[in-house]
Structures are given as structure tokens and as C-alpha cells.
């Protein structure tokens, strides 16, 4: 299947752009990490006018000159894809503005962008996380920060999330994703822009559930990685994934989300791919911790942001706020932040009181 997608992807999408019914969109992307650049290339090859900004000037220089991303060596950056160091330029006169910076930088980036964002701008967020201090999701942060004095009069927010590894999107392997927003028109617009031969996009109005899934699954993936690093097998992985999505769903329902979201692409789909793939930073970091590395050593060896560790404080606060039992999340926290050995933590998890499965889902 993937060979056909890769073989036909560029030619089919370029042919699509020659169709008089296909509109060339202007898209500004804030962030030049692996996910932002994989999407930037895809959107550019689809015939859109794409401009990428990064806060790191040297990164922009290198990408513009070499046309290769250091963490995506198999991806060639098209000459048509442009780069800028100007926040004003990347934000001005765009059909879509996409935030692709790590979750910890979303608020700061939004503050810098605020003066240049147009009224009614469609904004797509692809970062996954919950802000520890405010317990806001990424689109809530964007609404808050862009809504301050000097900002636009209203923006249309969409979360793009699902089982997606940048390494696969970068080489046109088949992928599915969710365009989530209560603004149905905006969600469908983003669906149409991002959908192509190799990426199928669904819509979902439950933006809170989609974003919560994207943030919490990183914590569960850390736990699955720890289990693997300890030498446990498929049985343990399956149990952690299944019970992990149950924890996320319980929290989501308590927060007013649609329970069906957690059985979809942005829920169990994203958790499976994050918890089982070596492309996943959270899984790799967990494996290293399970093998005896400290959390700090694991992050250093992975060499990129491990979002699951950043999400832990917010996950625990939300569980306490909504009175939801999340034993796997608590166990991962005990290992990462409180020095409990991985083996001891797993034993404690297994020795919990006996339960009836169904009421706990």
C-alpha cells in the first residue's frame, strides 16, 4: 500500500494543483521542528504557498540552505517552500496560520504573533499538551493569548491531531488524522486543505477530547516504554495501552468530552502509535528509564522534547480536580519525579485492589 502512495503521492498531488477547481492557499507555519516541517513539505507539494518561521535564526539559515532537516534525513525540502525570520511576514495575509512549536513555547510564540494575526484568522494547532499552571489545552492558550489587548478580533481555532509520526508523513506513508473544532466550517476547511493522496483527514467537533487525548497519551506511552525497558512483553504493553486509554477516557468524560473521541484516531489511535513505535520520543525515553537511566539521562539521549514528562504535572492536577482515578499516570510520576524504581512501581501497580473492569472503563 505505502509504495503506491509514495509513488503516486507527488505526481498525483501536483496534478491535483493543476485542476482549476483547486485553490492555492497561503499557509504560515510557526515552528520548524520535525512535525512542522513534515507538514510544511506535504502542504507545499500539494501546491500551497508555504512559509515557515522559527525563533532560531540559525535553524532557518540551515534549512533554507541545505534543504534537509537534520532529524528527517529522508525528506527533501522543496525549493518552493520558503523560510523567514520575520514573525510579521509569516502571520500576514495567510489563509491558515499553523502553530507547530513544542507545547511549552505555544504561549510565548502566540504573544509574539499577537500584533500580526488577522481578525477571524483560521489557526491550526499541532502541538500536544496541557499547560501546568493554567490546565489549558493548546487552543485554549491560543485563544487566551491572542485575545489580549492588541490582538485580533476573534480567531477560528482547529486542533489537528492523531496517530502521526513526522518520519512517516515526511516520506508519504499513509496516514490518518483528525481536524477538531466546534467551528464546523473551519474544521472542514482544514480537512480539505490537509487531505491528500497519502493523508486522510476526518473532522470531530470535540476539540477538548481530541486535545486531551493528545496530551495524556504521552504519559501512558512513557509507562509502556518503561515496561518494555524492564523486559516485559506484549501482554504488559497491551494491558497498559488498554487501561491507559480507560484512564484518559474517564478524565475526558468528567471534563465534558465525548466518550467516543477516545475510541477514535485521536484517542486510542494516537496512543497505540505513540506507545509502540521507536519513532516515539516518549516510548524511547521510557525504554531507557526502564533499562536504568535516570529521566534526565533519558531525555538527553533522546535529544528532543519528551512531551510526556512535561504533561505529568497537569495530568495529576486534572485527575485531582475532577476526582478521577489514574493509577498508571500516578505510577509514571512516581518513577519520573519521585525516584521510585521502575520495577517497584510496576509491582505496586499490579498489587492494587481487585476491580471489576467494566465500571472502570
TrEMBL record:
Pfam families: NAD_Gly3P_dh_C, NAD_Gly3P_dh_N. This is Glycerol-3-phosphate dehydrogenase [NAD(P)+]. PROSITE patterns: NAD_G3PDH. Catalyzes the reduction of the glycolytic intermediate dihydroxyacetone phosphate (DHAP) to sn-glycerol 3-phosphate (G3P), the key precursor for phospholipid synthesis. It comes from Faecalibacterium prausnitzii. Belongs to the NAD-dependent glycerol-3-phosphate dehydrogenase family. GO terms for molecular function: glycerol-3-phosphate dehydrogenase (NAD+) activity; glycerol-3-phosphate dehydrogenase (NADP+) activity; NAD binding. It is found in: Cytoplasm. Its EC number is 1.1.1.94. GO terms for biological process: carbohydrate metabolic process; glycerol-3-phosphate biosynthetic process; glycerol-3-phosphate catabolic process; glycerophospholipid metabolic process; phospholipid biosynthetic process. NAD(+) binds at residues 31-36, 105, 166, 281. The active site is at 217 (proton acceptor). Its main location: cytoplasm. Pathway: Membrane lipid metabolism; glycerophospholipid metabolism. Transmembrane segments: none annotated. GO terms for cellular component: cytosol. Keywords: Cytoplasm, Lipid biosynthesis, Lipid metabolism, NAD, NADP, Nucleotide-binding, Oxidoreductase, Phospholipid biosynthesis, Phospholipid metabolism. Signal peptide: none annotated. The gene is gpsA. Sn-glycerol 3-phosphate binds at residues 128, 162, 164, 217, 270, 280-282. Residues 206-346 form the Glycerol-3-phosphate dehydrogenase NAD-dependent C-terminal domain. It catalyses: sn-glycerol 3-phosphate + NAD(+) = dihydroxyacetone phosphate + NADH + H(+); sn-glycerol 3-phosphate + NADP(+) = dihydroxyacetone phosphate + NADPH + H(+). Substrate binds at residues 128, 281-282. NADPH binds at residues 34-35, 128, 166, 281, 305, 307. Residues 26-186 form the Glycerol-3-phosphate dehydrogenase NAD-dependent N-terminal domain.
